[in-house]
């Protein structure tokens, strides 16, 4: 599916008379990294880390150059750019999808219902970071161009989908602010749920534990003791401490997990080489070592104020080692580096007992066929009520003490 388009329009959702140019790109290499990152991570102008490492040019380019996306994967790049007054003011990571795998905002039931009614759900357009259920901006704009940039991206996305007879377009794991703006532009808003850990100025892991109920505090201490009883040591590596041999090991872990969860791994081996070269300072690799033999590992990506848990794998089972490497080591790192939160990936009610509380996630959807759109809208209304109720109930069952929380002491 090729959607080579250049649109010259005035955004419907703005009062400006500025004409903009909306263009699709089949490769991120056709957009300069400086232009993309000026929209995706303008905060890095001060030399710091990006808020969202996953929408940076180097991360998305690693997916493309490693063939983790592209021909034969069901993720065909169609990046959008919006240009005004001679400069790119907005971009979006857009993909043509021939399936719904690797998205984590599940629309399989929509596809099934539409196709049973005689429609063709695939291909569709997806604004997302492939295989990455992490909330962040998806309508990426330069500062001061938020309104016109977002409007241009949404207008271009919808027009390209409609002109090519596609069933739908989806913007997944966007921010709450983008969700509100998208609703005002006529898109359908969907609510989901994840579990995140918040740092309330804790000075140590023990200070975090002191904020929990006695039973949960004892449970976590017991799990950490059990995990460390596997007979070896745990290493947390970042930057130049990560070596190619570590990626060989982690690739074996990742393949095993990917085969069990998804049938085949989403990422290629080359992807890990690419991110080693371009963003190893933004990676935290936690390995459990039995002498010099790695037995398990967890990969995290370091943002400006958030640690993002991404992948886990093991060559053998040890009690509670998964909890230690994926959750408790991440909390340790976040506290030590003054990070605001840990996002440990999609789903997982078991995270609740370990200090990760439910939070809402957001996505936006455009449906071409009016009758199908109405049915999806009714479904989303009912689903929203159920998700919000679930978040409220789960939060009430959280592990924290019911009395005033002790923070940072």
Description:
The protein has 409 residues and is of the alpha+beta class. It is built from eleven helices and 16 strands. Strands 3-6-7-9-16-10-15-14-13-12-11 form an eleven-stranded mixed sheet, with helices on both faces. It has a five-stranded antiparallel sheet with strand order 1-2-4-5-8, with helices on both faces. A hairpin with a 2-residue loop joins strand 12 (283-290) and strand 13. Helix 2 packs antiparallel against helix 9 (269-279). The termini are far apart.
Low-confidence stretches: 404-409
As laid out across the biggest beta sheet, the strand order is 3-6-7-9-16-10-15-14-13-12-11
How far apart the termini lie comes to 57 Å
Overall 3D shape: globular
Question: How are helices and strands ordered from N to C?
Answer: EEHHEEEEHEEHEHEHHEHHEEEHEEH
Which sheet architecture does the biggest sheet show? 11 strands, mixed
Provide the residue-averaged pLDDT: 92
Helix content: 25-40%
Number of separate strands: 16
Structural class: alpha+beta
Query: Into which percentage range does the β-strand content fall?
Result: 25-35%
Spatial extent as radius of gyration: 22 Å
Helical run tally: 11
């Amino acid at each position: 599916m090729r959607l080579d388009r250049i649109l010259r329009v005035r955004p419907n959702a703005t009062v400006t008379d500025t004409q903009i140019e909306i263009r699709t790109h089949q490769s991120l290499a056709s957009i300069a990294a400086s232009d993309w990152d000026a929209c995706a991570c303008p905060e890095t102008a001060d030399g710091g880390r990006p808020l969202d490492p996953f929408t940076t040019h180097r991360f998305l380019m690693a997916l493309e150059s490693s063939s983790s996306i592209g021909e034969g994967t069901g993720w065909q790049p169609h990046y959008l750019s919006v240009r005004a007054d001679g400069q790119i003011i907005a971009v979006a990571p857009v993909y043509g999808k021939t399936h719904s795998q690797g998205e984590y905002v599940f629309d399989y039931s929509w596809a099934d219902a539409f196709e049973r009614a005689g429609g063709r759900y695939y291909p569709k357009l997806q604004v997302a970071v492939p295989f990455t259920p992490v909330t962040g901006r998806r309508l990426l704009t330069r500062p001061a161009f938020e309104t016109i940039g977002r409007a241009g991206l949404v207008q271009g996305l919808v027009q390209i989908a409609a002109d090519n007879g596609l069933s739908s377009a989806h913007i997944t794991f966007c921010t709450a602010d983008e969700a509100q703006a998208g609703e005002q532009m006529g898109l359908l808003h969907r609510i989901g749920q994840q579990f995140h850990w918040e740092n309330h100025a804790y000075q140590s892991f023990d200070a975090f534990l002191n904020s929990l109920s006695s039973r949960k505090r004892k449970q976590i201490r017991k799990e950490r003791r059990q995990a460390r009883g596997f007979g070896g040591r745990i290493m947390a590596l970042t930057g130049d401490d990560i070596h190619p041999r570590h990626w060989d090991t982690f690739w074996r872990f990742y393949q095993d997990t990917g085969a069990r969860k998804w049938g085949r791994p989403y990422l290629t081996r080359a992807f890990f080489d690419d991110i080693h070269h371009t963003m190893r300072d933004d990676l935290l690799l936690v390995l459990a070592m039995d002498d010099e033999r790695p037995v398990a590992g967890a990969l995290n990506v370091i943002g400006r104020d958030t640690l993002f848990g991404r992948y886990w794998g093991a060559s053998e089972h040890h009690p509670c080692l998964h909890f230690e490497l994926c959750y408790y080591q991440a909390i340790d790192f976040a506290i030590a580096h003054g990070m605001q939160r840990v996002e440990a990936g999609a789903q997982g009610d078991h995270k609740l007992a370990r200090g990760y509380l439910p939070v809402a996630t957001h996505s936006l959807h455009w449906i071409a066929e009016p009758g199908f759109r109405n049915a999806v809208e009714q479904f989303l209304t009912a689903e929203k009520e159920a998700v919000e109720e679930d978040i409220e109930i789960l939060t009430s069952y959280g592990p924290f003490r019911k009395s005033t929380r002790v923070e940072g002491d």
